[in-house]
Each structure stands twice: as C-alpha cells, then as structure tokens.
C-alpha cells in the first residue's frame, strides 16, 4: 500500500525543467523621428555604425533564452554593455524568467545615447553560459 502511495506521489510531481540555453543577441537602433526599430545590426550583420546620431542615438539589446516549452526559470540572466575604457554603459539582471509555449524568452536592455559610444561590447551570462557581441558606433567631426 505504501509503495502505491509513493508511486502516486512521484507520478504527480511536475516534470523536471529542461535546461535552458542562450540564443542569439540582437541589437536594434531606435529611431526617435519615427519610433521604429532598425533591423538587427548585431554581427554578423553588415552594419556601418558611422554618424548614426543623425538618425538614431539609442539602442535596444535583446538576449534570447531557449528551452523546451513554457517554463519558469529561476536562474538569473545578466546583460552588460560596456563602452570605452571598459566602462559599464548599462546592465540588467533578470531573476525570474518565463519562457513562451514555444520555449523562448526575449530579454531587453535599453542603451541611451550610444550613437558615438565607440566600441560597445555586450555580454550575456546565464549560469556557466556566456555569449558576447561587439559593435562599433563612431562619429566624425
């Protein structure tokens, strides 16, 4: 009898979550004149980031987290954007993540006034996983 109760209790437990993994990092310029976002300019996209301040000076970085189906993930995901001299331009930590039924979560970080920031390195860290992308936004005289 006790074996049946133990078996029923084990069967009633939700399945263990499937491990999540980092997906792509996307970067999109925000155009204040239209309120639109650019196409993804993160590498390997061919993007010339010269004098973008004439059309856009803010950027949205989006980190993708992938898993199997809808899940609540309690492990933190951190996005850090660094500029010249390794200075932190912006950072954000997500401590509670819910993936969609397709097993995806897209987590944003907004960067203000980066049109002439020079080389920007974005690093996304999730547990032992890490992914980085570098983009250059320069301005002339």
State the gist of this model.
This protein is mainly beta. The chain contains one helix and ten strands. The longest helix is centred in the N-terminal third of the chain and has 11 residues, at 2-12.
Beta percentage is over 45%
* Sheet with most strands: strand arrangement: 2-1-3-8
Question: Low-confidence runs (pLDDT<50, min 5 residues)?
Answer: none
**Residue-averaged pLDDT:** 87
Please count the beta strands (DSSP E, at least 2 residues each): 10
Radius of gyration: 20 Å
User: Helix count, per DSSP?
Assistant: 1
Distance linking N and C termini: 83 Å
Task: Tell me what the structure shows.
The protein is mainly beta and 141 residues long. The chain is 8% helix and 46% strand. It contains one helix and ten strands. It has one helix at 2-12, and strands spanning 21-31, 36-37, 58-66, 72-73, 77-82, 88-94, 97-98, 104-111, 118-126, 129-137. The protein has a four-stranded antiparallel sheet, with no helix packed on it. A four-stranded antiparallel sheet has the order 6-5-9-10, with no helix packed on it. Strands 4-7 form a two-stranded antiparallel ribbon. Strand 5 (77-82) and strand 6 form a beta hairpin. The longest helix has 11 residues, at 2-12. It is elongated and about 80 Å long. The mean pLDDT is 87.
Keywords:
141 residues; mainly beta; four-stranded antiparallel β-sheet; 1 helix; 10 strands; 8% helix; elongated
